[in-house]
TrEMBL record:
<dbReference type="Pfam" id="PF00188">
    <property type="entry name" value="CAP"/>
</dbReference>
<feature type="region of interest" description="Disordered">
    <location>
        <begin position="33"/>
        <end position="122"/>
    </location>
</feature>
<feature type="compositionally biased region" description="Pro residues">
    <location>
        <begin position="90"/>
        <end position="118"/>
    </location>
</feature>
<protein>
    <submittedName>
        <fullName>CAP domain-containing protein</fullName>
    </submittedName>
</protein>
<dbReference type="InterPro" id="IPR014044">
    <property type="entry name" value="CAP_dom"/>
</dbReference>
<feature type="compositionally biased region" description="Polar residues">
    <location>
        <begin position="41"/>
        <end position="51"/>
    </location>
</feature>
<feature type="compositionally biased region" description="Low complexity">
    <location>
        <begin position="61"/>
        <end position="89"/>
    </location>
</feature>
<dbReference type="InterPro" id="IPR035940">
    <property type="entry name" value="CAP_sf"/>
</dbReference>
<feature type="domain" description="SCP">
    <location>
        <begin position="130"/>
        <end position="242"/>
    </location>
</feature>
């Protein structure tokens, strides 16, 4: 069963931890949520800070795995000598042992990151369908969200970037926020973003999002009119982008 151990959402970034066992041995992340109100002010959706264990798990999962470099090693040669039989003539002085020269080791080449994936229309479409089912059930007066290609591009690029660079955050490695990424695709009014990692189906990730107040608020928010979803199946990074 899924056990939600911690959840926090902040004005700038939100985080938490869900403990699930995956076949790869890697634990999925609790979804993160971020949103803006109509005045482009960041919304705080949960005032409780993340627990220490959640912080540790988040830091561990978002930090790239350390690759240790091996320095060349040399082993000093040892020599043994047997005493020659004694004779009248002096024995020649022993020759000094020859030290083998260490052979340099070639530096290890880092493995190339996986290539960015093309949008997965099947999984993304399933998420959109589940979002609109939830809206029709809980906020029928708000209406369904319309898919916008600009939000879809921003969401897919962020999912693929997190997968390629091994991090999990609303802030890209180049310090861009979700609003920056959405505007870069030509969409003028970014609204919010949900992300998740590790859930292997649209239903699983939507279940996780709907059990979290912050993510549920983004999904059901009446002010949002458009949506774009991206997923990269290299460790399953999910992104939902919402627009006004």
């Amino acid at each position: 069963m899924v056990s939600l151990t911690a959840l926090a959402a902040g004005a700038a970034i939100a985080g938490g931890a869900t403990i699930l066992a995956l076949p790869s041995g890697k634990s999925p992340q609790v979804p993160l949520v971020m949103g803006y109100d109509g005045a482009n002010n960041a919304r705080q959706t949960d005032e409780s800070p993340p627990s220490d264990s959640a912080k540790a798990l988040s830091a561990e999962s978002s930090s790239p795995g350390a690759t240790g470099s091996t320095s060349p090693t040399t082993s000093s040669a040892t020599s043994s000598s047997s005493a020659p039989p004694s004779s009248g003539s002096p024995s020649p002085p022993p020759s000094s042992p020859t030290q083998p020269s260490p052979s340099p080791t070639q530096p290890q080449q880092p493995a190339p990151p996986p290539p960015p994936q093309a949008p997965n229309a099947g999984l993304a479409g399933e998420v959109v369908q589940l979002v609109n089912q939830a809206r029709s059930q809980f906020v029928p007066a708000c209406g369904a969200l319309t898919v916008d290609d600009r939000l879809t591009r921003a969401a897919q690029k962020h999912s693929s970037d997190m997968a390629a660079q091994d991090y999990f955050s609303h802030t890209s490695k180049d310090d861009r926020t979700f609003a920056d990424r959405i505007r870069a695709e030509g969409y003028p009014r970014p609204g919010g973003e949900n992300i998740a990692q590790g859930q292997r189906s649209a239903k699983a990730v939507m279940d996780a999002w709907m059990k979290s107040d912050g993510h549920r608020e983004n999904i059901l928010r009446c002010g949002f009119k458009t949506i774009g979803v991206g997923v990269d199946t290299n460790d399953f990074y999910w992104t939902q982008n919402f627009g006004f």
